[in-house]
Specification:
Layout (H helix, E strand, L loop, with lengths): L2 E2 L3 H20 L5 E7 L3 H17 L2 E7 L5 H13 L5 E4 L10 H4 L13 H9 L8 H12 L8 E5 L6 H10 L3 E5 L6 H6 L3 E4 L17 E4 L3 E3 L4 E3 L4 H4 L5 E2 L6 H20 L3
Parallel strand pairs: 1-11, 2-3, 2-4, 5-6, 5-7, 7-8, 8-11
Antiparallel strand pairs: 9-10
Helix pairs in contact: 1-10, 2-10, 6-7, 6-10
Length: 285
Amino acid sequence: MAELLIGAPVSSALDSETKKRADALISREIVPTLAIVRVGENVADISYERAACKKAAALGINAVLHTLPSDTDADSFLKLISQINSDKSVHGVLVLRPLPKHLEDSSYISLLSPSKDIDGITPKMMSALYSGAKPFFAPCTARACMEIIFHYGIELKGARVAVIGRSLVVGRPLAMLLLHEDATVTICHSKTDDLKSVCKSSSLVLSAIGRAEALGSEYFSPGQSVIDVGVSFSDAKNKLCGDIDLDSVLDIVKAVTPFKGGVGSVTASVLARQVIEACENINSV
């Protein structure tokens, strides 16, 4: 039976440090503040938003929600970004993505202040991540995967790692973070030839394709560690699911994250920590 890579102990360790730093800021009459921007009613976005707000409240971080309808025009979206940029009380911004197609323009996102970009979506932050320049904020979900890897002592140096998914939200930044730790990374996607073989030959597989339980036992082999990043709604099960068919792999792989209590729980903790770091940077603490 596979070891379950539970997120709770990872989150607990992160939260303990974050709470101390938040308290230190508050003692100086600085209230760390997160602005969350959501466009539309995507179920996965709403779930993440709730988790982020709950975590923020527990750690002494003020969270301000900005919700816009899915048909919001570009001018309205950019006006909101401009307002957040100029609001000195806001230290970090989370723009929930993917945005509606008519707003998925890199020129829009580039207008977000890099100093408040705690999810690594602006060109400046992406450049720092890819070049290895410091300091930088990596996308929170990608960083959460790394925190799980570090916590459970999964060896990366020289390891063959498969990252399934090439989005700028998770797949590509995650691959760069793994490369920084000397892993040998293969980025897989919908055009990858013989994906099953690539996965089975890797010691670590991370999936971020957002297709409910798309990866079953045929993709895995004994001794592997598996991290499930995906979140999508399963019509068949009428609930949110991960990419991995957990029940089918438990007797095969060495270790795997569950959908509930896995990467998602750590992502909220990483988000909170990066709000604190941005607040400290902005206030030269």
